[in-house]
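no rush on this but wanted to send it before i forget. theres a chain ive been looking at and ive put its sequence and its fold in token form underneath. i want to understand how the tokens follow from the sequence so walk me through it. thanks a lot i owe you, the record is right below:
>
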Amino acid sequence: MKESEFSSTDFNRITELQREGWDLAAIVVYIHKIKENKLKWDQELFLIGSEMYTEMFAQSELSAQEKVILVINHLGGYLNEVGDLQFEETKYRFYEQMPPGALFFSLYAKAVQQAYPNGLLIAKEDKTLSKIVLKKKYSTETKIHQFRNQLDKCTIEYVENYREKYDLQNDEAAIKMILGKNWFYADPHYHNRAQLGVVLLTDDIRKNNRTMTNKGLFKKLKTEGFYRKIVSADYHSEFIVDEAGQLLSQWSETVKRTDYFDCAIANGETFNYGERPRIDSFQTHDKLDGNPPRFLDTEKRNTIKKSWISPKDNWVYQLVRRLAEKGVRYKSRSEQKRQKKNNKS
């Protein structure tokens, strides 16, 4: 590209894009677009998930690993002293009009799959390292794993804004309206943890595998109800909802105002880089979403998980799950009243 072929403004913008990591193939998309409508496409250039950004990401000839980390870099991502992904302020931000199920989410997930076909692997000899040391040694893998939280934040904010805009009864109604027919219930096994010492006692836990006994599960149901998992048809965006149809998420404005924040971190949604397990012979969900949390989670989530116990995946649990998906609710009325009062305050 010659400087004489562009206005000084356009050439400076192209040079800026090169400095920020875009390759020629992506920049060519920008050049073609601004010939159509410069104002519109310039506005979308720094909005991750917009039509412009998504097409540049799709057409880029960077390696899959370079593309994956490029997005995190655009948002100013870095690891702090305890190995948690933080963000400096940059000109880039997520496109507020990008709904769950949007093309960018799928493209980004596919790039992660291509970049890490064997998963976000940790060498056997490093698994005994402290979490902080390990996360710093595997800084790229840690950033990619924890970036799932930011993708979640994007979809949760979209749902809450949608619910408010259309004055819907609850978050679940908003999610299902947004996704139309493109959703299904998935197994929320690891999203129905209960806290030891608060909901559960030591005799509510199976000692051999540290899961709830059936008695412990019923205590959890009476106290907190059963949380369901709604997943977009592409399997990448997921939502955890309680028995009132409200989101259980660390990004939910309602949850932030209540004492459910730790519960939301232990049980909340996590964006899936992998594909739906039942149709994926490569087991990308296990490799990219199931295994990394053991080593690469945030400091707060690592701490919280120590005292939160999952149900045992047996026929009792599966019956409870299927009935919940059919509309059965388990939480006691006294707990329902307490939660409503808590939410209002």
